């Protein structure tokens, strides 16, 4: 049985999820609209890493 996370930790995880969503959206903008494919893919990779960190901390 794992203890519940505190308020500061849950706020941090929420901010990380929002940051990952914004990175994914920005990556889409870079990849398709501005034709800067390298930056778009790097932003997607960063979003996946952030979501992976959130998944690790919540499990």
Integer average pLDDT: 91
Uncertain residue segments: none
Question: From N to C, what is the helix and strand string?
Answer: HH
SS-based class: mainly alpha
The amount of helix comes to: over 70%
Q: What is the domain tally?
A: 1
Radius of gyration: 14 Å
Structure description:
This protein is mostly helical and 59 residues long. It has one domain. Helices cover 83% and strands 0% of the residues. The protein contains 2 helices and no strands. Helix 1 runs antiparallel to helix 2. The chain starts with 6 loop residues before the first helix and ends with a helix. The relative contact order is 0.17. The mean pLDDT is 91.
Topology of helices and strands:
Blueprint: H1 7-33, H2 37-58
Helix pairs in contact: 1-2
Q: Which labels suit this protein?
A:
mainly alpha; 59 residues
Gist?
83% of the residues lie in helices and 0% in strands. It is mainly α and 59 residues long. The protein has one domain.
């Amino acid at each position: 049985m794992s203890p519940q996370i505190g308020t500061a930790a849950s706020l941090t995880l929420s901010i990380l999820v929002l940051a990952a969503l914004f990175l994914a959206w920005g990556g889409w903008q870079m990849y398709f609209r501005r034709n800067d494919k390298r930056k778009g893919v790097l932003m997607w990779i960063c979003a996946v890493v952030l979501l992976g960190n959130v998944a690790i901390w919540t499990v």
